[in-house]
Backbone:
């Protein structure tokens, strides 16, 4: 179980890098701007937040085992706060939020969320044993 954070960070990094590459490839294939909509920032911030949230949960698992769900939800709240402080103003600056802006944030967010949920579940299941 001590290797779980390293495994999580590796899988998260690899998954987001592959998704980022595919995302850029899809944009380029459709002759769309590659670096608009804070796309790189979105992938980096989602990696950092997912890593931070998982590591906090991991290191507090013994002391706050009954509050793991609340910590996970607090992490989700933090992600929403970052979205509304960093991304939302930029996306709304022209009065329209288009599909490219939504996908620039949502793709890395969902990948990170799925991996966080999966690995946090593994962590919590290991506490019950």
Residues:
């Amino acid at each position: 179980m001590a290797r779980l954070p390293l495994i999580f960070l590796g899988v998260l990094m690899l998954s987001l890098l592959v998704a980022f590459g595919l995302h850029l490839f899809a944009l380029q294939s459709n002759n769309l701007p590659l670096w608009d909509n804070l796309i790189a920032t979105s992938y980096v911030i989602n990696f950092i937040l997912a890593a931070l949230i998982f590591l906090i949960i991991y290191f507090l698992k013994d002391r706050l085992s009954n509050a793991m769900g609340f910590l996970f939800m607090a992490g989700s709240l933090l992600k929403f706060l970052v979205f509304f402080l960093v991304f939302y103003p930029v996306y709304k600056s022209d009065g329209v939020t288009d599909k490219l802006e939504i996908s620039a944030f949502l793709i890395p967010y969902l990948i990170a969320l799925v991996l966080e949920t999966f690995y946090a579940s593994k962590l919590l299941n290991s506490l019950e044993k």
The mean pLDDT is 91. The chain has one domain: 4-128. The helical segments are 4-29, 39-60, 68-92, 99-128. Residues 4-128 form one domain.
